[in-house]
């Protein structure tokens, strides 16, 4: 699994996000290879109504972390990505 720090621009206004606004995301993709995970990350944000997707940073999540039930239970992004294959969260600096 990989976690990405991503910026993308909203195609249309929705949920308090203005059209054309750049939005920071944290995206979890449950894929074995980085290249495929990057493509899936971009695809999921495009499907969510964003474009100009730019991956800023990425990190592979260690298998031992994913195997730790307590860690997964405490982290909604990991849990959702393990169940659905991906998890997208707007990064809120506040």
What portion of residues is helical? 25-40%
Number of domains: 1
Termini distance? 27 Å
In terms of structural class, how would the helical and strand content be classed?
alpha+beta
The coarse silhouette is globular
- Count of runs of 4 or more consecutive helical residues: 4
Biggest β-sheet description: 4 strands, antiparallel
- Uncertain regions spanning at least 5 consecutive residues: none
Q: What is the radius of gyration computed over CA atoms, rounded to a whole number of angstroms?
A: 13 Å
Q: What percentage of the residues does DSSP assign to strands (E)?
A: 35-45%
Major β-sheet strand ordering: 3-1-2-4
Give a quick set of tags describing it.
4 helices; four-stranded antiparallel sheet; alpha+beta; single chain; 4 strands; NE1680-like fold; 94 residues
